[in-house]
Amino acid sequence: MVKMSAISLSVEETVFPLAEVFTISRGSRTESRVVTVKLNDGTNTGWGESVPYARYNETVDGVIETIRCLEPDLRNGLDRMALQDRLEPGAARNALDCAFWDLQAKQAGERAHILAGVPFMGPEITAYTLSLADPDIMRVKAAQHARRPLLKVKLGGEGDLARLKAVREGAPDTDIIIDANEGWDADTYRQLAPVLVKLGVRMVEQPMPAGNDDALLEVERVLPVCADESCHDRTSLESLVGKYDMVNIKLDKTGGLTEALKLRSEAEAMGFDIMVGCMVGSSLAMAPATIVAQGVAYTDLDGPLLLAEDRTTPLKFDDKYVYPPVPALWG
Fold first, then answer.
1. Fewer CB atoms < 10 Å away: N or C end of the chain?
2. Catalytic residue, candidates 250, 253, 262, 320
3. 141 classed as catalytic
4. Of residues 152, 154, 243, 253, which has the active-site annotation?
5. What is the pTM of this model?
6. Residues 6+ apart with CB under 8 A from 95
7. Is 316 tagged catalytic?
8. Model confidence over 46-103: pLDDT tens digits?
């Protein structure tokens, strides 16, 4: 790792309007408010982005203030590894950590994935997310995206089966994964899971509330279950054994690429399958996550596809894949 000297910091809010209203069980939004960080060593500038999430008691203003409090440390040589102990996992550390990776790649004249020990980067199939809506609307949206190999469907409790049936009618040949966003209980899982398997659903994310998911120990998981809100970093893993089949790694939860890579390695060693997901952010937020996503079971890095506007040099997407970032974007 390149030794860090004094670094100057720039941090600000960036707002991206969404292409259309995005709804999950917790509410709706029309824009994505992100935190953009730049670290400059006098020659090179490293970029990072994070998406503060109210579910974890984060706000844009709070994350920006946390980052600004580190300006003296950065001037005194705080580096990426010291950052891991300086801040808790979350959006503030993520933006800084990813900016450090980008800066170090530029200083070394090498791609970030090489520095991360990932010798080859290829495109990965990414899910496309359908937000929560009435079944008729979700059927139409599914049909519009039926060419995609993987759809992710946001659910919210009552009426979920009707929504899934409508999506399957709209996209009869597409693989489906679903996100219950903590909206089910054990009885709901028992009732829905066998039916969803017959509908071709491959996996459900976080069916029960984090911290109240012990019932999964007693449930026959005929439909694989992925931990999202229940999994943040490596310290989460021990509590997931016997409850979950998969973990969803998001850089805003892990606090950056550094911990995300370690979380993936340890989770795989413990027998968990891996999903790499995202908050609704720009291509700058997705770019580091493409490193973690290489070869995983499911990639869900479609955040930029939900935006009306993106970064100047965005990630490349097509109907199937998300492609690795070009250096002008990140890494």
1. N
2. 250
3. no
4. 154
5. 0.95
6. 11, 35, 36, 37, 48, 49, 50, 63, 67
7. no
8. 999 999 998 899 999 999 999 999 999 999 999 999 999 999 999 999 999 999 999 9
